[in-house]
């Protein structure tokens, strides 16, 4: 696996981790804010693992932050890797590099959204 593929794999892993952080905290807050408490209750009864994720949100966010840091390091390392000389392969290399960076930034946005709802928003609720 070359550096660009490793970077893309790390970005996808960070997206998965930050998605878990979003599901544990932002999804329940969104459903309650929309007045869909019954939907949240049905969701929790259908997927009881959501309760475990919410109870262990600190650990979930720590694991997600480690994966995001690793993915960021891989992005940084892959930014100067050479692309092949063949025009078709060079285009694929450039496309993969851009897609990997886009996935990383989406992961970061999802992580920050989940972090806001998990740790910041509860301070403002009365």
- Could you say which overall geometry the principal axes of the C-alpha atoms support? elongated
Unreliable stretches covering 5 or more consecutive residues: none
Span between termini: 51 Å
Give a short account of the largest sheet.
Answer: none
Series of H and E elements: HHHHH
Structural Rg: 18 Å
Q: Considering DSSP H and I runs of 4 or more, what fraction of the residues is helical?
A: over 70%
Strand content: under 5%
Round the mean pLDDT to the nearest integer and report it: 81
Number of separate strands: 0
Secondary structure tally, helices: 5
The number of domains: 1
Kindly name the structural category: mainly alpha
In words, what does this structure look like?
With 126 residues, the chain is mainly α. It has one domain. It is 86% helix and 0% strand. It contains five helices and no strands. The chain has helices at residues 3-33, 37-46, 49-55, 57-78, 87-124. Helix 1 crosses helix 3 (49-55), helix 1 (3-33) packs antiparallel against helix 4 (57-78) and helix 4 packs antiparallel against helix 5. The longest helix is centred in the C-terminal third of the chain and has 38 residues, at 87-124. The model has no long low-confidence stretch (mean pLDDT 81).
Quick overview:
86% of the residues lie in helices and 0% in strands. It has helices spanning 3-33, 37-46, 49-55, 57-78, 87-124.
Keywords for this entry:
86% helix; mainly alpha; 126 residues
Architecture blueprint of SSEs:
Elements: H1 3-33, H2 37-46, H3 49-55, H4 57-78, H5 87-124
Helix pairs in contact: 1-3, 1-4, 1-5, 4-5
């Amino acid at each position: 696996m070359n550096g660009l593929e490793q970077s893309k794999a790390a970005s996808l892993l960070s997206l998965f981790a930050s998605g878990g952080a979003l599901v544990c905290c932002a999804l329940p807050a969104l459903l309650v804010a929309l007045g869909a408490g019954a939907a949240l209750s049905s969701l929790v009864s259908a997927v009881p693992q959501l309760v475990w994720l919410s109870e262990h949100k600190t650990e979930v966010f720590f694991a997600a932050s480690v994966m995001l840091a690793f993915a960021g390091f891989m992005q940084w390392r892959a930014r100067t890797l050479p692309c092949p000389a063949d025009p078709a392969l060079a285009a694929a290399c450039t496309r993969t590099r851009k897609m990997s960076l886009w996935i990383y930034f989406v992961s970061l946005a999802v992580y920050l959204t989940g972090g806001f709802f998990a740790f910041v928003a509860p301070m403002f609720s009365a």
